[in-house]
């Protein structure tokens, strides 16, 4: 077995609590990604288990991130060369470079919640560059503080375009933050 396979088997045997308490700064980027992917996998499994139970969930479960191919137009006029949207999210496995940063936007909560919504200047985004001048950007959702439901943002096209325009710059792919799904 290769070392990544051994590491993956090790984290799969860990309890969810122990996995969440790991000091991720001590691990390589690939290992941090495996840890996050395992946490997300377990979270998705718990959500699936809840949805198949006989009791109805208080909140409809949603994915904790989205792709926004419809915002390609706000990007085109900011780039020096044309890029196309890579409409497959492979978790960055086939990407050439990756850049994690933030965008701004608004969130709307459900009509049943007492919160009407909120604005955020720090919506996490992972931008990935692929072969043949293709990119995609995973935009992470946020939870409502009142009802704890996960909500998809309405992005500010201007800041989204500015962040994606980093594809043309030499800084692209140098700055990294460890992101965890909500």
TrEMBL record:
InterPro entries for the chain: ZAR1/RTP1-5-like_Znf-3CxxC (IPR027377)
Compositional bias per record (Basic and acidic residues), positions renumbered to this chain: 29-62
Residue ranges of every copy of the 3CxxC-type domain listed in the record: 102-178
Pfam families: Zn_ribbon_3CxxC (PF13695)
GO molecular function: zinc ion binding
Keywords per UniProt: Metal-binding, Zinc, Zinc-finger
Spans annotated as Disordered: 1-62
Record has Zinc as a keyword: yes
Stretches of the chain forming a coiled coil according to its record: none
Record protein name field: 3CxxC-type domain-containing protein
Organism, scientific name: Entomortierella chlamydospora
Lineage, highest ranks first: Eukaryota, Fungi, Fungi incertae sedis, Mucoromycota, Mortierellomycotina
